Amino acid sequence: MINNEAIEKRLFASELNKNLIGKKVSIAGWVEDVRPLGALIFLTVRDVSGVVQVIFNKSNTSQNVFLTAKSVARQSAIKIYGTVKESKAKVANVEIQAENIQIVSKAQHPLPIDPTGRVGSSLDLRLDSRALDLRNPFTSAIFKIKHIALQSIRKTLLDEKFIEVNTPKIIGQAAEGGANLFSLDYFGKKAFLAQSPQLYKEQLTLSLDRVFEISTYFRAEKSHTRRHLNEFVSVDIEAAFSYKEDVMDILEKMVVKAINDVLNNCKKELKVLNRELEIPKVPFERITYSQAIEDLKGSGLKIKFGEDLNTKALRRLSKRHKDFYFITDWPTSLKPFYIETKKDDDKISESFDLMYGYLELASGGTRVSDREKLEKRLMYCGLDPKNFSEHLKTFSWGMPVHAGWGLGLDRFVMFLTGMKNIREVVLYPRDRFRLTP
């Protein structure tokens, strides 16, 4: 039965279904293909949710509408008004019999890249035209997955009684010393772009107990690798009356939940990316730094105690530990001043890194909560406690034992999507060579 009732609001491609057959609807999107076949014109229109086939019949539309549809440039932004019909095509249940077309904005050819992905482009060219690149279903799938992962992460932390906070990004003191910081003139004073919310989130446990922040941070490192950027998004938590093991459990729970939510909500996107995900086994494997050194020694790579594990070592280690795993109990000398040490051995820290293969995803541990010990740790690390006076004074106000971690969101999305270059999972990446767009 034909129902000519009109739906006034714009519908997305994903909202069109057989229940709407006979109804007049409007859609908006970008022209992906134009196929004139005599008295018929077939348009493929894409929006963020998918594609819809639109048919113009010369006998049912005005000559002006028919010619406009025939001559519209691919990738132009358009609006369509017409009636939903059953489709004989295998890819969709319904299509739109068009009555009118409005060209909102004409695409000027030649375009810098092909947003359909049929003609390949280098990553640099795609990043130069990122807004256009996002029309490619492959590219947009990455950021839809990132969106779901972010939702899941927030939900887990809220369920764990964390409060979301926002800390300053222009700071007067360095969270981990002055290395690798972008400095700037702040009305005649020296200031820095924050590389971490570390000091602030520790202070906030004094009153808010459990806090988290998802925000952008900056590191002035001159590295140029597939897993480093100078501007990055970090998920940070800090929990009062907690120790290393407590926050490791929260991190593990959050990661597993995010993977599960992506699997349940991003089936189409994972298929586009040809990415297969599995729920990891819990609890995650846990090895100490000393055990990692022994594993490496067994593979023929000798690492002295106190040496950091470089990329070569982590790649070698990942051959034995293929899934998610924690490396715990790092040497104190390799960790920042605010990381607590073992009670029976101050050369070992109460710390951990979460790894996936050779990729470090998160780092954290129990924090120093005693002011006197924190001052000693600052001096041990070659830092002047006077430069941290604003932070240190809060440790005289009833600072609880606390622990936390920071997770690199972009690296985690690399895992979720299977991307090998972090620039693929960041909308507008910033490295030492890229400042635009």
Low-confidence stretches: none
CATH fold label of the largest domain: BirA Bifunctional Protein, domain 2
CATH arch. level architecture of the largest domain: 2-Layer Sandwich
Q: Got a strand count? A: 19
Report the average pLDDT across residues. Answer: 95
The CATH first-level class of the largest domain comes to Alpha Beta
Assign an overall shape.
Answer: elongated
Structurally, the number of domains stands at 2
Strand content: 25-35%
Q: In DSSP terms, counting alpha (H) and pi (I) runs of 4 or more, how many helices? A: 12
| CATH homologous superfamily heading of the largest domain | Bira Bifunctional Protein, Domain 2
Give the termini distance in whole angstroms.
52 Å
Helices and strands, with pairings:
Elements (H helix, E strand, L loop, with lengths): L5 E6 L12 E14 L2 E8 L2 E8 L5 H9 L5 E10 L7 E12 L17 H6 L1 H4 L3 H23 L3 E2 L5 E2 L11 E4 L2 E5 L4 H7 L5 E9 L12 E10 L3 H22 L1 H6 L12 E4 H10 L12 H8 L5 E5 L12 E2 L2 E5 L1 E6 L2 E8 L4 H10 L8 H4 L9 E7 H9 L20
Parallel strand pairs: 1-2, 4-6, 7-11, 13-14
Antiparallel strand pairs: 2-3, 2-5, 3-4, 5-6, 8-10, 9-10, 11-12, 12-19, 14-17, 15-16, 17-18, 18-19
Write a structural description.
The chain is α+β, with helices and mostly antiparallel strands and 437 residues long. It folds into two domains: 6-105, Beta Barrel (OB fold (Dihydrolipoamide Acetyltransferase, E2P)), CATH 2.40.50.140; 132-425, Bira Bifunctional Protein, Domain 2 (BirA Bifunctional Protein, domain 2), CATH 3.30.930. Helix content is 27%, strand content 29%. The chain is built from twelve helices and 19 strands. The strands form four sheets. The chain has an eight-stranded mixed beta sheet with strand order 7-11-12-19-18-17-14-13, with helices on both faces. A hairpin with a 7-residue loop joins β5 and β6. α4 crosses α6 (244-265) and α4 (137-159) packs across α12. It is elongated, with a radius of gyration of 27 Å. The two termini are 52 Å apart.
